[in-house]
Predict the 3D structure of the following.
Amino acid sequence: QVQLVESGGGLVQAGGSLRLSCAASGRTFSSYHMGWFRQAPGKEREFVAAISWSGGNTYYGDSAKGRFTISRDNAKNTVYLQMNSLEPEDTAVYYCAAKVQGPLWQIRYGSEYDYWGQGTQVTVSS
């Protein structure tokens, strides 16, 4: 069992930056691939970024490429999402998720994740 707690969301102006954190409980954090997803009101959940259990592989959704960076610190049981050049279109609830190790081609699909956090709101004003 893994419990995930996101933090770092808030209100920021367009062009600004935020760093989201996701702290995981348990001693097996390094066994999980980790992902960030987001959901805006009235829209479907969207893949943002993911990182393999070792940190050696990272993946980004089209909206995140070139602006967001995912990283992890297995010693601190924490995964991060650095978000730069934020746009109003990035406004959403951001969720952290953990996936038991498996084929990396599944890492973009929310349905493949086993545990989810409660989400943190990110609001970007124009």
The radius of gyration is 13 Å. The first strand starts at residue 4 and ends at 7.
